[in-house]
Design goal:
Blueprint (H helix, E strand, L loop, with lengths): L3 E4 L7 H12 L5 E5 L10 E3 L11 E5 L16 H17 L4 E4 L4 H8 L6 H9 L5 E6 L2 E5 L9 H4 L2 H19 L5 E5 L14 H15 L3 E6 L7 H4 L4 E4 L2 H11 L5 E5 L5 E4 L16 H18 L1
Parallel strand pairs: 1-2, 1-5, 2-4, 3-4, 5-12, 7-10, 8-9, 8-10
Antiparallel strand pairs: 6-7, 6-11, 11-12
Helix pairs in contact: 1-10, 2-3
């Protein structure tokens, strides 16, 4: 079996230690290949310097080594590592494109260090991966065992959401989501629940007009094409246990509307997935955690879940 390529992420964060912790759990289950500077691994890590991507050691943490030119101090991001962090992501993608790896799992990055050190021109992983892939439209999904959610708009101020929420954006989001559930998760007829933007989904225009003017026409058009879509629904009644049985994924209108429910249900085990790429990419659903980096106390649950999900998605694409 070909490996999952893991990019190192921010060396001063918890990325290296959760990668090693995940390998200890998964080493007999899923082959892993870590791209980064082995000097940044936790002290005492028994690692193998691979000569090529197929050179996976069965009993050691396998590394495709990159020299970042300096040590990593836990909790103190160093812009001098920026180029290496960015290259590790690009190299992981290249391994998948070449067929040497099955999927990409990315450890958390620190965008400020990448901007300061290398002029990183992207808001985050998602946009950079889309550029590497030449993908016109990608979608961020967060998933755990009991819920999948997609925010139609992501990292923008709440005041800008109504203007950003166009019929074109919502249509693209739903089409990419629908296709990915079929291709990557083996759901032949995805059931998609769509939240309204306003309280009570606008309450027939009494609490806002975005539902009537934008959301409903999009949903009606896609239903006419055969998609199983419910909504727009009042977001405050979409996420209790009984409601979640009625859909495979919830598409929400803005960041917190989607992320609060999933982080409440499973804060440690959530996975970030980029839908719409020509390759599989997952990531743990948390940041660099500088405050605990280097202590050996970081919870690797989300990284383990991200690797397992990447493996299942890659299997689904191979069927």
């Amino acid at each position: 079996m070909k490996p999952i390529a893991i990019s190192c992420g921010e060396p001063a964060g918890i990325g290296p230690e959760i990668a090693v912790a995940a390998w200890r759990v998964l080493k007999t289950e899923i082959p892993l290949l870590w791209l980064g500077d082995p000097a940044h691994l936790p002290v005492g890590t028994d690692y193998h310097n691979a000569t090529d991507p197929a050179d996976i050691h069965p009993f050691k943490f396998t590394v495709l080594a990159r020299d970042f030119g300096g040590p990593a101090v836990p909790g103190q991001p160093d812009p001098c590592h920026a180029s290496g962090v960015i290259a590790a992501i690009a190299d992981a993608v290249a391994l998948v494109h070449s067929g040497a790896a099955r999927a990409v799992c990315t450890a958390p990055i620190h965008k400020a260090a990448l901007i300061d050190g290398a002029g990183f021109a992207y808001p985050g992983h998602t946009e950079y991966l889309a550029a590497l892939a030449g993908a016109d439209r990608v979608v961020m999904m967060l998933a755990c065992d009991t819920l999948r959610v997609v925010p139609a708009t992501i990292h923008i101020p709440l005041s800008e959401v109504p203007k950003a929420l166009t019929a074109h954006l919502l249509t693209d989001t739903l089409l990419v989501t629908h296709a990915a559930l079929r291709r990557d998760f083996g759901i032949s007829k995805p059931r998609i629940a769509v939240a309204g933007l306003n309280p009570h989904a606008g309450e027939e225009g009494k609490i806002g007009h975005e539902e009537a003017e934008t959301i409903i026409p999009v949903l009606d058009a896609l239903r006419a094409e055969g998609m199983d879509i419910t909504g727009p629904l009042s977001a405050d009644t979409m996420f209790h246990a009984e409601a979640r049985k009625s859909y495979d994924i919830a598409v929400c209108m803005y960041h917190d509307q989607a992320l609060i429910p999933i982080k409440t249900l499973d804060f440690s085990g959530g996975v970030n997935v980029t839908l719409g790429l020509p390759f599989v990419r997952t990531s743990p659903d948390h940041g660099t955690a500088f405050d605990i980096a280097g202590r050996g106390t970081a919870d690797a649950t989300s990284m383990i879940a991200a690797i397992r999900m990447a493996s299942r998605m890659a299997d689904a694409r191979d069927r």
